[in-house]
Amino acid sequence: MRTRFYNARILTMEDGRDIFEGELWVVGDRIIFVGTEEEGRHYCDSHKDTILVWDEEIDCKKNLLMPGFKNAHTHSAMALMRSKADDLPLSDWLGTQIFPIEAKMTVEDIYHLSKISIMEYLTSGMTAAFEMYLTPFSVADAFRDCGFRCVQTSCVNNFSQSVELLEKYYTDLNGRDEYNSFILGIHAEYTCSKELLEKTAELTHKYKAPFWAHISETESEVKECRDRYGMSPVEFFDSLGLFDYGGGGYHLVWTDDKDMEIMKKRGLYAVTNPASNMKLASGVAPISDYVAKGIPVAIGTDGPASNNCLDMFREMFLVTALSKIRNMDAASMDASEVLKMATVNGAHAMGLKDADVLAEGKLADIIMLDMTQPNMQPENNIVKNIVYSGSKSNVLMTMIGGIIRYNRGKFNIGAEPDEIYAKAYEISKRLYA
Ligand SMILES: [Zn+2]
Fold it and tell me: Ligand 1 centre and the CA of 294: distance in Å?
């Protein structure tokens, strides 16, 4: 597929490059050109041997092309529990509403339920998800069948999956198809024995691979870890050698200076999940401290049972607003920093180094935002408009790997929405019977 976008405004997210008017050309799954119209003519002059015949030419009507958002932490199939498990503290939420239902879910259930969330990601301009759930193979199948980019880690813990399975996911899912990859990880310190974590550390060393987990999400999680091991979860994982090849953590709400020193030293990413942390009353993460110390931050929605909305615009607003409140300082978090978290940093955290910015040779994971709606007017500052007043309703198009998967309310994901919703309803009726 060869697609030419013209008459566009383009935000490449490259450092120091302002929004400009121009064109973006896609051949196969890659961007072959991005620049002004004039640069496009130069490109044609210097590539006389390349015959550019387009399958589709799209007039962007001055709307904005930018890299797709990266949802850096989620549990897609938890769409099942949306609005079934609310208004409870995290421990009760997990123990009484989540674990008992998860115990009844089948591999096929998880396949079908994941698709509900994939649809929602597309409507919110996301082009990749950093996924963690119970059955990585059926999750990978769902993402592949929808044509959505997925980086998975496992939720190995004392009760489900195993380190042996973790290695199998790692060797089998990497390179299996163009949409899926896998990174080593476990559920959380509080659900894993020391022995399990030591075996996981052997794997990270065997493959010289980064390590990920839910880390320091609640104050009580950190306290219990200190009672068990005399260390915070970050210190404890580091003491086992789990971070010797980098990685990162989801949430990282309750960290101290010593944790941040380790995060900085090991090059760890902090994935923040502001809506989930608010809804479960977990706390407000010290995001401005991470940024000040040079610890890269990415943004995730967390699952649809704890959020319950998979919307990067809402998360971006919360990252900046919560940072301002935590510090009682309106200057503590800039919109452009937050937009970088939602795009470039997310891609790097997930190991998607070719999906970070719009540039020649990069993956064509692109969104088009509608600049004509009232919430984007006037255009005093487009980046601030996206972060502070932007919404899902501005997403006109989501392209992944050169294929348009969502276009003005219509999905191109290999199945009809009604079919996906009906299947989810059937599963919900059965599991909640
Ligand atoms: Zn999570």
Answer: 24
* Distance from the alpha carbon of residue 301 to the mean position of ligand 1, in angstroms: 9
**pLDDT given at position 379:** 95
303 CA from centroid of ligand 1 (Å): 6
Q: From the CA of 40, how far away is ligand 1's center (Å)?
A: 44
Topology of 2-67+354-411 in CATH?
Urease, subunit C; domain 1 (2.30.40)
Task: Determine the distance separating the centroid of ligand 1 and the alpha carbon of 49, expressed in angstroms.
Answer: 50
CATH topology of domain 69-352: TIM Barrel (3.20.20)
pLDDT digits (tens, 9 = 90+) for 281-340: 999 999 999 999 999 999 999 999 989 999 999 999 999 999 999 999 999 999 999 999
How much distance in Å is there from the Cα of 249 to the middle of ligand 1? 10
| pLDDT score, position 42 | 93
Q: Look up residue 308 and give its amino acid.
A: N
Instruction: Find the DSSP H helices in 293-416.
Output: 312-327, 335-340, 346-349, 382-384
Q: Are 97 and 88 in contact (CB under 8 A)?
A: yes
Q: For the chain, give every domain's residue range.
A: 2-67+354-411, 69-352
- Distance of CA 215 from the midpoint of ligand 1 (Å): 10
The side-by-side arrangement of strands in the sheet containing 184-188 is 184-188, 211-215, 247-251, 269-272, 297-299
pLDDT in tens, 371-392: 999 999 999 999 999 999 999 9
Low-confidence ranges of the chain (pLDDT < 70): none
Host H or E run for residue 426:
helix 417-431
pLDDT for residue 250: 98
Ligand 1 ion: residues within 5 Å (CB): 302
pTM: 0.97
What whole-number distance in Å separates Cα of residue 348 and Cα of residue 128?
12
Structure-derived torsion over alpha carbons of residues 124, 129, 132, 137, reported in degrees to the nearest 10:
110
| Helices 417-431 and 107-123, axial angle in degrees (round to 10) | 130
